[in-house]
Specification:
Blueprint: E1 3-5, H1 18-26, H2 31-45, H3 52-61, E2 64-68, H4 79-85, E3 90-94, E4 99-103, E5 106-109, E6 120-124
Parallel strand pairs: 1-5
Antiparallel strand pairs: 2-6, 3-4, 3-6, 4-5
Helix pairs in contact: 1-2, 2-3
């Protein structure tokens, strides 16, 4: 379980683009493509690209399914703990205000978000 600094933004801007960064990693594409795909999905749904409905629908289209994290310890189950419990696979974690990509127990973000508390996650369905 390791934090890996990840900022695919072509201009290396540190902006409020966590959804685009996480989707870029999870969908194995660049920042521009993830951004355009979100904008197109938002256009179809008549909603903003950063809205949960939009990126959730995009993940469903890409073969991901959503899981709720049990509320057994609402302040202590962190991104780091999730990574320890999920050493294999590709996931997107949602905290309610932040989105983080996790692959094979490592979390990818523009800053060390390991202490954030996820409330749900998306997992790529097994084929």
């Amino acid at each position: 379980m390791t934090y890996i600094q990840y900022n695919p933004n072509p201009k290396r801007k540190s902006t409020i683009d966590c959804t685009i960064r996480a989707l870029s990693k999870a969908l194995d594409t660049d920042w521009d493509d993830a951004y355009i795909r979100l904008c197109m999905k938002g256009f179809v749904l008549k909603n903003m690209p950063s809205a949960n409905e939009v990126w959730h629908e995009l993940l469903k289209d890409e073969g991901y399914e959503r899981h709720i994290i049990p509320n057994t310890c609402p302040d202590c189950y962190t991104v780091r703990a999730f990574c320890l419990d999920h050493p294999r696979g590709l996931f997107i974690l949602g905290t309610g205000s932040h989105v983080i990509a996790v692959e094979n127990g490592d979390y990818y973000d523009n800053w060390d978000s390991g202490d954030e508390v996820p409330i749900y996650y998306w997992e790529r369905r097994k084929n």
